[in-house]
Specification:
Number of helices: 4
Oligomer: single chain
Largest sheet: none
Order of helices and strands: HHHH
Number of strands: 0
Distance between the termini: 36 Å
């Protein structure tokens, strides 16, 4: 795979994850205050993740390195952590608001 294609693909994937995280936050904002308090501890780390995603997306747009080995493990580990936090938070939102939240 061409390095530029890899950077573009990873940029797209990280942008999609950023949108998913914003969606979780938006859904949490629609919860009633009591339910929101239950979910809030799961959301608090998302602002840091969003900042890290934005930094990586910007880096991929303007500085596509030719050697990814040093950063690949870091990116893969962050992906796993982000995915588990996302799934856990969506589950908590579902429990806090058993009726579907629009959007």
């Amino acid at each position: 795979m061409d390095v530029l294609d890899y950077c573009k693909g990873l940029e797209s994937e990280l942008t999609a994850w950023k949108a998913k995280i914003y969606d979780v936050i938006r859904k949490m904002d629609k919860l009633q205050s009591g339910d929101k308090e239950k979910v809030l501890p799961h959301i608090q780390g998302f602002n840091i993740i969003i900042t890290e995603l934005e930094d990586k997306i910007t880096s991929l747009k303007y500085e596509c390195p030719s050697e990814w080995s040093p950063q690949k493990k870091e990116i893969d580990d962050a992906h796993i952590d982000m995915r588990s936090k996302y799934e856990e938070t969506m589950e908590m939102i579902g429990k806090a608001a058993p009726v579907s939240i629009p959007g």
